[in-house]
Amino acid sequence: MSPFNLDLFGDTEPEQPPRREQIGAQACVLRGFALPWLESLLTALEGVLTVAPFRQMVTPGGFTMSVTLSSCGALGWTTDRSGYKYTHNDPQTGQPWPRMPDVFFELAQAAAREAGFADFVPDSCLINRYVPGAKMSLHQDKDEGSYAAPIVSVSLGLPATFLFGGFERSDKSQRVPLLHGDIVVWGGVDRLRYHGVLPIKDGHHPRLGEQRINLTFRTAG
Ligand code: MD3
Ligand code: FE
């Protein structure tokens, strides 16, 4: 509460925690930003997953990822023994990835704007599914055509501890708790930071059950 706005009558709302947390020079967490969009987001997600269900993928090194994935938008991220790449078609069906639902695009653009990145035009949404125990090791996102655009990530379901590292794998990383409805936006000088997700803990989320789903929006082409 501001010292110029004393709550003399005790009749104002308790102060809310900051909704926007800066975690790097050009990286921030927007707490609960996705919550008002949740039901339309989940309806649209269901439609995407009917056409392009979650599947396991193998890294170029031959490891099966613990996270299962899908994509929507003009480009979808995939990995197999030959490398990481963005493709126009789902390798499982040979069909184009499902189009990005309008509500996905609008939410990603609104979050980017809130974080100071005007006119974000994502052409790819990677959908990651984590069950308890699943994790993502420290890595950089380097498969996109340009690093000028930010990346927007929407966390849904079970909580996660996000690792926000430096520019070398060995740099110390900060741990950022991410909850259902939180959105993180990275860009500019923070775009090539190492990052990862610690193994998801057992738990039950009232809306999503025993899983965490992360939507990652990028301008990939
Ligand atoms: C931080 N996904 O799919 S959000 C990924 O929660 C990925 O599923 C995580 O990392 C997840 O590649 C984390 C995305 C993210 C993307 C780019 C970043 C975090 C970033 C660039 C710099 C720093
Ligand atoms: Fe990443």
From TrEMBL:
2-oxoglutarate binds at N128, R129, Y130, R212, I213, N214, L215, T216, F217, R218. One of its GO terms (cellular component) is cytoplasm. Substrate binds at W77, Y84, K85, Y86, D143, R169. GO terms for biological process: DNA repair; methylation; oxidative RNA demethylation. GO terms for molecular function: broad specificity oxidative DNA demethylase activity; ferrous iron binding; methyltransferase activity; oxidative RNA demethylase activity. Keywords: Dioxygenase, DNA damage, DNA repair, Iron, Metal-binding, Methyltransferase, Oxidoreductase, Transferase. Its EC number is 1.14.11.33. It is an enzyme of class 1 (oxidoreductase). Residues 121-221 form the Fe2OG dioxygenase domain. Fe cation binds at H139, D141, H195. It catalyses: a methylated nucleobase within DNA + 2-oxoglutarate + O2 = a nucleobase within DNA + formaldehyde + succinate + CO2. Its cofactor is Fe(2+). SUPFAM superfamilies: Clavaminate synthase-like. It comes from the Bacteria. Residues 1-20 are annotated as: Disordered. Pfam families: 2OG-FeII_Oxy_2. Binds 1 Fe(2+) ion per subunit. Belongs to the alkB family. Dioxygenase that repairs alkylated DNA and RNA containing 3-methylcytosine or 1-methyladenine by oxidative demethylation. Has highest activity towards 3-methylcytosine. Has lower activity towards alkylated DNA containing ethenoadenine, and no detectable activity towards 1-methylguanine or 3-methylthymine. Accepts double-stranded and single-stranded substrates. Requires molecular oxygen, alpha-ketoglutarate and iron. Provides extensive resistance to alkylating agents such as MMS and DMS (SN2 agents), but not to MMNG and MNU (SN1 agents). NCBIfam families: PRK15401.1. This is Alpha-ketoglutarate-dependent dioxygenase AlkB. It comes from Pseudomonas arsenicoxydans. The gene is alkB.
